[in-house]
């Protein structure tokens, strides 16, 4: 069953077409990747899925609901969460507080109870902190929960972003270059975590990633963008041997040699 359906989605900025008539269907429970050279439109596509940009054309359905033009917080509340290519943590908040921020769409205490410091508020705060610690323990960061986010090593900051995304109890998690800037050991650890998101938690995962070793090892479905257009789609073997994909990354000479 499809969890996410983007049909003929297009986004232009002035005279530049960043995403051109892209269709992508993501089934429940898969790990999928969107790849392509720099400037191919991958992050713009993610931004449309999560409500940061409104598509100029096309339709986006998430879990059967139309979300094209829906606000980011409303899409997050439906169960789609993401991380960013450039880490976006609250640097001067603690690790635990960053995860608590990720729960904002799930907290239901009325404003008047917060003002009055009602017992229900304290109960929900305690429950939220316990759940936040569970998310941190899952990614291996509970021992660092009181540290400021800006003081974490780079790899831990990436894991904190994932813990914050998990705080919203998502159905789908979008990871934008989750291993960018990592050393080989950190990349291996991140790869294991991504697998566990699906295998342990039953999440659907879509990632943008430039590490082709990771993409080919972990993805059940790969979609390739080039200059905003989808040029190929399939499993790792199909994508690895596709002449258009080879040309997009390495040039026409390499594509001809591969053929």
UniProtKB/TrEMBL annotation:
One of its GO terms (cellular component) is plasma membrane. GO terms for molecular function: ATP binding; ATP hydrolysis activity; L-isoleucine transmembrane transporter activity; L-phenylalanine transmembrane transporter activity; L-valine transmembrane transporter activity. It holds the Pfam family BCA_ABC_TP_C. It comes from the Bacteria. Residues 4-252 form the ABC transporter domain. InterPro entries: AAA+_ATPase (IPR003593), ABC_AA/LPS_Transport (IPR051120), ABC_transporter-like_ATP-bd (IPR003439), BCA_ABC_TP_C (IPR032823), P-loop_NTPase (IPR027417). Keywords: ATP-binding, Nucleotide-binding, Transport. One of its GO terms (biological process) is L-valine import across plasma membrane. This is ABC transporter ATP-binding protein. The lineage of its organism: Bacteria, Bacillati, Chloroflexota, Chloroflexia, Chloroflexales.
